Structure formats: structure tokens, C-alpha cells
């Protein structure tokens, strides 16, 4: 295409003539109305709020498109080495408000809507929240894209455009019901369809090994078609792409059944393949091993690797320069098939010798591990892979052979060691260990918090750390202050602007440090308390409106929002709530600190224990909220359908952040950072990034409790017995018995028997007493507002380190070796 473009047209974009300088409210209003009429074909007098939103999103998209296209030009002109971030999940959250804030257009749009007799905030609420991810891992990817753009790092995100994202959660009679999430139903104005960007992805068939390289004759083929989402930098001229692939029935007639003239069965097979990108697997932290999931993973990486190579060949005429031009990052093991896919293309299509292709791969790939839990480690059966991806399996065997013979054996390791590090796990059913493949192929492997990276090296990857000690590193996670303060908590943003002398903190979060000087100032404490109170009122109104539950904004808001999982111990939170309830009934006239317990989160649809936990929370909420003896001293609220946009509403309103996973199990956590950044105090274990938050805020400003990793391991080693703890703590025993015997489920007394009397894999009972004691400290501090708000300010002041900008700088320096676009490389504005 490019070759046929006339020279005059080629130069059009470099001049920046169209949109810049920045539009005022009048221009914005005209643009919105224009989009409504001429793009959407809707008469303004008939337009619904959703129509206005779509029109406004088109108008806003226009304003970042020039940056988006010129960024691409800069990258090409200066041949910028680029990082490609491959992830099965991107939890971007709503795009509209974020794009207005990042481009400093919020005021103009607000005014424009005012002139139209509409309210920008209400219109923004119309936007669907694209939930193309499960939880922390997907949201981390979204924070990273924001930071990559803002830091002007040449980067492309690659993911899947699931037609159905994370399911919509409804609560019916206390139970989770899953409904499809129709995020595309109102259109998706923010994405560009790229019908011309398509790559064939093949599956199945046979491998003819009588040639070298062997010939893969696939049985099925489908096209991956791109949609590009603009990721605008904050305040800058840069915008990077997030490229999401959909599956389309191809016009590829080289398949067996077409050749045999069996049109309908061929079409049927193709239609089945179109379902590849239909739905996100809602399994957080559990491997599923389903064929469709393997197909999805291959679909993502095959399209992405082909695209990366095509982009490279636009700039360079040789495939050999790929490692200088390209870094590919694997977000967990889900995209690990990119390794054998790149090998396949280099060997089969470019005729590179195995060793040369392998050396290139080892320069190109890096991998982040997000969990040490064995049930979450991806393994694919050799049989399934042989069926679906015979050439890739063949390459994996060759990689394994090369690794064992050239790396392991020469160092004198024994057969037992070799069995442990082999990519192929032997057993009744042979399995491909994806994490092993990732480690062997990558030049860097990182964990997501210090404690996690240390454990990774001493446990999961200990054998590999002996082989390649320099390969392992840590990059502690971070969160973007643009979304988690500017978008989520505008009042806090104004507060910070005022006391930090401008909005520089938004791109240099260490400036929050200056707050340290102000934490004893009573006026500032009060001002912050007012910001917090306003956020609590806003959340209380939502809860009143949506759930018809009245909560008191003056109570302490105690919040645990995250996926429901046994290791995160929502049920330990429940033990404390019931214990507190008992104490209040025993001693109704004591001076109790009123609390609202707020929980939210989804349970994987096949995870029974997590679903029972949701039901327990709701049963207890119903029971306690209706017990008049408790008055307003405890309220329990389970907010349905947790999402990024709900997090934006809840986090600013939290006083207390519950980060209570069993030590050693939560790789990092990222909501812990968002809460502290919004001035909540943490009650938490020495797990994940809590450990580093403690180091940054100081022990007086955080409530740490529970066993350490070492203590947890000792308990396991000695044969952990939950009754050692239940039988020695009468108050705990009372709580366990109440729940197990139906005090909160009188219609079905045994409903929670199993949940309470299981083997307590995550040692809730061992940590219970220490947790309850820490909760008493929380009450005590909250009753001294000066001390509480001082501590809250100290937390905020010391969160600079937890900006995703810092994480991305670490990745660029230590892992990807990527330079951002410099000031000089930016085009000069007309
Ligand atoms: C999370 N992992 C970690 N996994 O649990 C959390 N898994 O500690 C960490 O802060 C975060 O990653 C970012 O590093 C996940 O969220 C998943 O969502 C997931 C999805 C599919 C399969 C397995």
C-alpha cells in the first residue's frame, strides 16, 4: 500500500495541521454534534446519553489520533527499539475520562456538555467498562501501558479482543450468578478496526519430518484481525497502540475440505474457529488445561509474532537484526508459545539454523512470573499439543534437548536434577511445563515484589537459579497515579496540586514526599479528612441507590476488594466480623467504633469454595444488618460486580485496606498500593508488596500482623492442625461453631460446615488472634483523628516508589534496554 501513496499525501501528517492547537469548548461541542449526526446518523433531538457518549468518544479520539500516528512516524524515523508486551489480559477500565484527563481536555468537554444541557460526569457513566482480564495481572498490564506511553517508551501491547470479557456478577439470594458481559453492545468508539491487518493462524494437521525443516501441514486456519486502541500519554504528544486480535473466518482456500469441495463442513469448521476470541477464561490463579484456552494463547502469539516481524521488516531489510530492534515481554506464561512460534518462523520461513534462531530468541524474550502457587502453573498435555500444534511441540522437544545436552549435562548434574528441570514432565500423562520453557528461553525473569522474587529463586525456580543465577531479578509492581488519583479521586488531585505546588506529582510521584513536611499540620489533616469524607459520601450514595442499604459515612470504612480466593482469606475477614458482632452483643454499652465492612470480588465460576465464601458474606451481611441490637455499629456490604470502575469509586472512600493473604502466597498485590496512595491505612500480613509498603511508610503507620513466611513454612512442615488454634481460643471456637452450625444460615444449618472445618490450607485460624489484635489497634487509632489522618498523610507521602512509572523505568533499564523518545525526536508543533 505505502508504495502507491503519492509523495504529497505522505507528507500530510507531519505538519500537525488538523487538530492542534488544542480546541476550546465551542469546537468540542461542534465536533460532538458533528459526530452524532454524521458518524452515528442520529438526530440530536433523539439522542440517548449513550449516543452522546459515543459521539463524544469519537470527538476525543480525533484529538489523540494525530499523536498516535505521529508517534508511529517518530518510531520509524529514528528506528526506535520497541518493546512488545504480550498479555492474554488487559483490564483497561473506561477510556473516555482517562483520555480527557491525559490530554488536558476535561474542562473543554465539561463546558461543551454544559452548553448542550448535559452533564459530562453522567455521560461518562454510560461507558462500558471493558473487562478483558481477571484481576491484578490484567490491571497491571493496563497501568504499564499508561506508564509506557507517558514515559514515551516505544511500546505496543498485544492482546485478545474477547467478545465477552469477565462475566457480570449478580447476587441472587446471596449467591453469585454469572451473566455474559456485553461490553461491545453499544459499539466501541475508542478502537480503530484494522480490517487490512490480518494474519493467518493455523492449527492441527500433521508434521512431515521427511524434510528439513519439517513441513507442518495444518488442518485449520483462521485469520486474526486487528483492532487498535489508542493509549494516550499523560500530557504528552505520544500515544501508543494496544493491538487486540479478533478471529475472522478467512478467505483461505487451502484447507482440505475446501479442496474436496465440501463447502459446508469447511464453513462449519471455520465458524467453530471464530469462537476462539469469544470469551475470556474467568480463572484467576488456576490453570484450566482446556483446548480452547490453548488455542486462544496460540492465536494471540501467532498473530502478534507475525505482526512484530512484519513491522521489523518495514524498517530493516534483514531478519537478523531482530534482537536489536525488538524486545518481547511475556506477561506470565500465557503467551509463552511465542517462543516456539518465533523459532518456527525463523527456522521454517527464514531457514535459520536452530542454534542461530535460539540465540536470537534468548536475546528477545523476557518473562514475568506472577505466582508461585503450583495449581496456577500452566502445563499442557503433550497429547493435546501434538494434536493442536505438532510443529511447536517438535520445536519444544528440540529446545529441551539442546538445553539438557548443552547447558545442564556439561555442568555435571545428575538425572534427578535433569528430570526436575526438563520442560517435559514425565508421568502418566506427559506435560509441557510452560514456566520452565519461559525461564529457559528468556534472558531475564522477574518476580513482582521483593519477597516474591526471593521466594521464586529459593523455591519454584531454585534449580534454574543454580544454572543461571544472573537471569533472575525483581521489578516491584506499581500503579498509575493518573488513573488511581486523577481519574478516580479528583478532589484528592486538587488537594495535592494545592499543597505540592502544581500537578508535577502526576508524572513524578516522588514529589509526594513533600507532604512529609505537612503531616502534623492540623489544617491540612482536616482538609484531607474532608476529601476522604466526600469520597465516603459518594460511595454511600451509590450503595443506597444500588443496594438500598444505608451506611454512615462517619463510620470507619473497612474494605477488602479483590478476587475471592482461599489464599486471600476473605473468610478470615468474616471471622473477625462475627467475632466483633459477638463482642458487641456481649458488651453492648462499651464505646464501640462503628464500622462498615465493604467487600467485593468475583469467584471463578468453577471454584466452589470461593462461591461459598461470597454466600457466607452475604448471609452474614443480611443477618447482622437486620439485627437491631447491633444498631449501626456494624454494617456489612458485599458490592456486586467488582470492576475497574467500581474500584475507582470504592478505593478513594476506604479508611482501612485489607491485605490479609497468607504470607508467601500473594505475589505482590496492587490494590494495596492504590489504597495507600488514596490515604487508607493498611492492615496486612508480611506478604507481597505489603513488605515494601511497610518499609516505605514505617511500622507506626501500618497494621502488620500474622505469621511470617518462615513461620508459615514451619507450621506446614510440622503438619499444620487447625484445631491446635481453634481448641485453644474459645472466642475463635465460638465463631467457627456459629458459622459451621448455621447461626447465619438457619434455613440450612450445615451450609458452611465444610468451609469452616476444612484443612485450613491458608492458616486462617493460626493468624486469627493476631488479626483481631491488630483490628483493635485500628479502632484505637481511628478514635484519635489527628493521629489517624497524620498516618494517612504519611502513607500518601511515601507512595512515590509505587508508581508504575518507576516499575517501567526498571523494566526499560534492567530488562528491555529500551530508550524513550527524546525531547529532540519529538516533532515540533506547528
Ligand atoms: C496477580 N495474578 C497476583 N493472575 O496474584 C498478584 N492467573 O499478587 C499480583 O499483584 C498481580 O498478579 C500483578 O502482578 C493474577 O492476577 C491472574 O489474573 C490469572 C489469570 C489467568 C490465569 C492465571
Automatic annotation (TrEMBL):
EC number, as in UniProt: 2.4.1.1
Entry-annotated residues carrying N6-(pyridoxal phosphate)lysine: 674
One GO process term, biological-process aspect: glycogen catabolic process
Gene3D superfamilies per UniProt: Glycogen Phosphorylase B (3.40.50.2000)
Lineage top rank: taxon: Bacteria
Family of the protein in this entry: Belongs to the glycogen phosphorylase family.
NCBIfam families: P_ylase
Name of this chain's protein: Alpha-1,4 glucan phosphorylase
Organism for this UniProt entry: Alysiella filiformis DSM 16848
Amino acid at each position: 500500500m505505502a508504495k502507491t501513496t503519492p509523495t504529497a499525501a505522505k507528507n500530510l501528517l507531519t505538519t500537525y495541521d488538523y487538530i492542534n492547537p488544542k480546541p476550546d469548548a465551542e469546537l468540542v461541542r461542534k465536533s460532538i454534534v458533528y459526530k452524532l449526526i454524521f458518524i452515528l446518523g442520529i438526530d440530536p433531538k433523539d439522542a440517548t446519553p449513550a449516543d452522546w457518549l459515543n459521539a463524544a468518544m469519537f470527538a476525543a479520539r480525533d484529538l489523540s489520533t494525530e499523536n498516535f500516528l505521529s508517534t508511529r512516524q517518530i518510531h520509524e524515523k529514528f528506528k526506535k527499539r520497541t518493546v512488545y508486551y504480550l498479555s492474554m489480559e488487559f483490564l483497561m477500565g473506561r477510556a473516555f475520562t482517562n483520555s480527557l484527563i491525559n490530554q488536558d481536555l476535561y474542562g473543554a468537554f465539561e463546558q461543551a456538555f454544559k452548553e448542550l444541557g448535559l452533564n459530562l460526569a453522567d455521560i461518562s457513566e454510560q461507558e462500558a467498562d471493558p473487562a478483558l482480564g481477571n484481576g491484578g495481572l490484567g490491571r497491571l498490564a493496563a497501568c504499564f501501558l499508561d506508564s509506557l506511553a507517558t514515559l514515551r517508551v516505544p511500546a505496543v501491547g498485544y492482546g485478545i479482543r474477547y467478545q465477552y470479557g469477565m462475566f457480570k456478577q449478580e447476587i441472587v439470594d446471596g449467591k453469585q450468578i454469572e451473566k455474559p458481559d456485553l461490553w461491545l453492545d453499544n459499539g466501541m468508539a475508542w478502537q480503530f478496526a484494522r480490517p487490512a491487518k490480518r494474519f493467518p493462524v493455523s492449527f492441527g494437521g500433521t508434521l512431515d519430518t521427511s524434510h528439513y525443516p519439517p513441513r507442518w501441514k495444518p488442518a485449520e486456519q483462521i485469520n486474526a484481525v486487528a483492532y487498535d486502541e489508542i493509549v494516550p500519554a499523560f500530557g504528552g504528544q505520544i500515544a501508543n497502540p494496544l493491538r487486540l486480535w479478533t478471529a475472522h473466518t478467512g478467505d483461505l482456500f487451502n484447507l482440505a475440505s475446501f479442496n474436496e469441495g465440501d463447502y459446508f463442513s469447511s464453513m462449519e469448521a471455520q465458524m467453530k474457529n471464530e469462537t476462539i476470541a469469544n470469551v475470556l477464561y474467568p480463572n484467576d490463579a488456576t490453570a484450566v488445561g482446556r483446548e480452547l484456552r490453548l488455542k486462544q494463547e496460540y492465536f494471540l502469539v501467532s498473530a502478534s509474532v507475525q505482526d512484530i516481524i512484519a513491522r521489523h521488516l518495514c524498517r530493516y531489510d534483514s531478519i537478523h537484526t531482530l534482537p536489536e530492534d525488538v524486545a518481547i515481554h511475556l506477561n506470565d506464561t500465557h503467551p509463552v508459545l511465542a517462543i516456539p512460534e518465533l523459532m518456527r518462523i525463523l527456522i521454517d520461513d527464514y531457514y535459520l539454523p536452530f542454534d542461530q534462531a535460539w540465540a536470537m530468541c534468548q536475546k528477545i524474550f523476557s518473562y514475568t512470573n506472577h505466582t508461585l502457587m503450583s495449581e496456577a502453573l500452566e502445563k499442557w498435555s503433550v497429547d493435546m499439543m501434538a494434536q493442536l500444534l505438532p510443529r511447536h511441540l517438535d520445536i519444544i522437544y528440540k529446545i529441551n534437548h539442546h538445553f539438557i545436552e548443552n547447558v545442564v549435562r556439561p555442568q555435571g548434574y545428575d538425572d534427578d536434577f535433569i528430570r526436575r528441570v526438563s520442560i517435559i514432565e514425565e508421568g502418566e500423562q506427559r506435560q509441557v511445563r510452560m514456566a520452565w520453557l519461559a525461564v529457559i528461553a528468556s534472558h531475564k525473569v522477574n518476580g513482582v515484589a521483593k519477597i516474591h522474587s526471593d521466594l521464586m529463586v529459593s523455591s519454584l525456580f531454585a534449580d534454574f537459579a543454580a544454572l543461571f543465577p544472573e537471569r533472575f531479578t525483581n521489578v516491584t509492581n506499581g500503579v498509575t497515579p493518573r488513573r488511581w488519583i486523577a481519574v478516580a479521586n479528583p478532589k484528592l488531585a486538587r488537594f495535592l496540586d494545592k499543597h505540592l505546588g502544581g500537578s508535577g506529582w502526576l508524572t513524578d510521584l516522588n514529589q509526594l514526599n513533600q507532604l512529609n513536611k505537612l503531616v502534623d499540620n492540623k489544617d491540612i489533616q482536616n482538609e484531607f479528612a474532608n476529601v476522604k469524607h466526600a469520597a465516603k459520601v459518594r460511595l454511600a450514595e451509590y450503595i443506597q441507590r444500588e443496594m438500598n442499604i444505608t451506611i454512615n459515612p462517619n463510620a470507619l470504612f473497612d474494605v477488602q476488594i479483590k478476587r475471592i480466593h482461599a489464599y486471600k482469606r476473605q473468610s478470615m475477614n468474616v471471622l473477625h466480623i462475627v467475632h466483633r458482632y459477638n463482642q458487641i452483643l456481649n458488651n453492648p454499652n462499651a464505646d464501640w467504633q462503628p464500622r462498615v465492612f465493604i467487600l467485593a470480588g468475583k469467584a471463578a465460576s468453577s471454584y466452589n469454595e470461593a462461591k461459598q465464601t461470597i454466600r457466607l458474606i452475604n448471609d452474614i451481611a443480611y443477618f447482622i444488618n437486620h439485627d437491631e441490637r447491633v444498631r449501626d455499629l456494624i454494617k456489612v456490604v458485599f458490592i456486586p460486580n467488582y470492576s475497574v470502575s467500581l474500584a475507582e469509586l470504592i478505593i478513594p472512600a476506604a479508611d482501612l485496606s485489607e491485605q490479609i493473604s497468607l504470607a508467601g502466597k500473594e505475589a505482590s498485590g496492587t490494590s494495596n498500593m492504590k489504597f495507600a496512595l488514596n490515604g487508607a491505612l493498611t492492615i496486612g500480613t508480611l506478604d507481597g508488596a505489603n513488605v515494601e509498603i511497610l518499609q516505605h511508610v514505617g511500622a507506626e503507620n501500618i497494621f502488620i500482623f500474622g505469621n511470617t513466611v518462615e513461620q508459615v513454612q514451619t507450621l506446614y512442615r510440622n503438619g499444620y492442625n487447625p484445631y491446635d488454634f481453634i481448641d485453644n481460643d474459645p472466642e475463635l471456637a465460638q465463631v467457627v461453631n456459629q458459622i459451621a452450625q448455621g447461626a447465619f444460615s438457619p434455613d440450612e444449618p450445615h451450609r458452611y460446615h465444610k468451609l469452616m472445618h476444612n484443612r485450613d490450607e491458608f492458616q486462617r485460624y493460626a493468624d486469627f488472634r493476631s488479626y483481631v489484635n491488630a483490628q483493635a489497634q485500628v479502632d484505637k487509632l481511628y478514635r484519635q483523628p489527628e493521629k489517624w489522618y497524620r498516618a494517612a498523610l504519611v502513607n500518601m507521602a511515601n507512595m512515590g516508589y509505587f508508581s508504575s512509572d518507576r516499575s517501567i523505568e526498571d523494566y526499560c533499564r534492567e530488562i528491555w534496554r529500551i530508550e524513550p523518545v527524546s525531547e529532540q525526536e519529538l516533532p515540533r508543533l506547528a
